[in-house]
Amino acid sequence: MSSEVNEQYCIALQPICDASLGHIGDELLYRSGLDVTRAQILDDEQATARVFNAAFYEAGIDRLVGDRQVFVNMPTNWLLKPELLPPHPQQLVIEVLETVAADPNVLAALHKIRSLGFSIALDDFVLTSENRPLLDVAHIIKVDVQQGIDEQALAQYRLRNLTLLAEKVEEYQEYTSLRDAGFELFQGYFYARPETHRATARQRSSNRAALVRILTELRHDDINFRELESLITQDPELTFQLLKYTNSALFHHTGSVTNITQVLNVLGLSRVRSVTLTILLANNGPVSRLLLSQALTRAAMCASLMGERVDSGGEAFTAGLISMMDILLGESLESLLADLPLDATTAQAILHREHALGSTLSRIETFEKGEVAGWENENIESFNQVWLDSQIWATQTLAAISKFAA
What pLDDT sits at residue 398? Predict the structure, then answer.
């Protein structure tokens, strides 16, 4: 029975951002189904092997996260075997756990890992005389700010030009204080709050009413192309970026695309839906951009599990995306839904998790949190695969958009 239970696990990504809230990396997390509140890993080596296999070999790390860095916890036995590391030294950041002793074998292995081009982060690091030698091999110090900050230790890190990463940052005001204190990287849930969005939102040329009308028109199956053209052309910023995107090398289109009618013909409705939604949200401020990967992944998962195409803009995709729009747009879901003429089933699924669509959305959120205790192994395996596929789709979509969105 224990071996069967130990098969229950899922992986996830937690964003890491810079001082400008740019999404520069992700921590690749392993979550066991044995514990609903945190990772509980009975076998560190097995957990690391599973994470590497899923992310680096099954999915492909470039497809999963693009060119962002990936932080991965590394148990001692893996540190002592650098030959087991994936061949991605410029992208992989090795996290040395706080339980790792700074003995000669570990230090020699870390010097070898560093010489291979990998970056090294000291996780939950609290400086002591015993672990001080680890500073000689580190690039990044991860400080759990909920445990307090040792200013004398920070001064020593700065003297060595080590990058300071604040983890478990829960409030936006905490982030700003830490940023002003010299921390360069940040990890936590401080950005996943509507008030954070309001503090960082960028004023766009379009107004909220026009944005909602575009979102509404995009979701119709019997879409009115003339109405859509009219709405898009009223937003100069969106028009400019759609034209840039369509004229890019991505589409081998002969001739120049100079108007929205041509954009719609070249891209097709499905791509116009996903591209326009992404551009609108990406230009809504740094918090929106930081959360877009999760929002698009959730929308794609919802579509896939409900039997839709991931970029169809159908009810399931729309429900998954709108379920995070209170954060992305800084307004309540009730207010947003009042302006979107969704059918009652979709609205109830979003607001109250009712019906089959609401149940699917609820299970996706449970999976995102790693709270899979009691799930059947095949269900967890299925959700893992859907998450991987959806994350890859979201990364590819955002990579294409980021080249043309301001």
Answer: 78
Distances (CA, A) of 316 to 5, 17, 38, 308: 31, 29, 29, 7
**166 bridge partner residues:** 143, 186
Instruction: For residue 191, give the nearest of 168, 170, 165 by alpha carbon.
Output: 170
Q: Evaluate whether 361 touches 302 at the Cβ level (below 8 Å).
A: yes
What element of type H or E holds 131? none
Instruction: Compute the distance between CA of residue 114 and CA of residue 120 in angstroms, rounded to an integer.
Output: 7
User: 257 and 263 in contact (C-beta within 8 Å)?
Assistant: yes
CA angle (192 as vertex; 214, 335 as ends), nearest 5:
40
- Using alpha carbons, list the distances in angstroms from residue 348 to 300, 310, 352: 19, 21, 5
Going along the chain from its start, the domains and CATH numbers come out as 2-193 (3.20.20.450), 208-402 (1.10.3210.10)
pLDDT tens column, 137-175 = 999 999 999 999 999 999 999 999 999 999 999 999 999
Q: What is the pLDDT of residues 252-289, one digit of tens each?
A: 666 678 888 888 888 877 677 667 766 767 666 777 77
Spatial separation of the C-alpha atoms in residues 220 and 224, rounded to whole Å: 8
4 burial level (CB within 10 Å; 0-12, 13-18, 19+): exposed
Is 400 in a helix, a strand, or coil? helix
Work out the end-to-end distance of the chain between its first and last CA atoms, rounded to an integer number of angstroms. Answer: 53
Give dist(CA 236, CA 233) in Å, integer. Answer: 6
How far is 232 from 273, CA to CA, in rounded Å? Answer: 12
Nearest to residue 32, comparing CAs of 52, 58, 51, 59? 51
Q: For residues 404 and 26, give the distance between their C-alpha atoms in angstroms, rounded to a whole number.
A: 23
Pairing of strands 23-32, 9-18: antiparallel
Close Cβ partners of 256 (under 8 Å, ≥ 6 residues apart): 247
Chain mean position to CA 154: 28
pLDDT at 268: 78
Sign of the C-alpha dihedral computed for residues 385, 389, 394 and 396 taken in this order: positive
- Bridge partners (DSSP) listed for residue 167: 144, 187
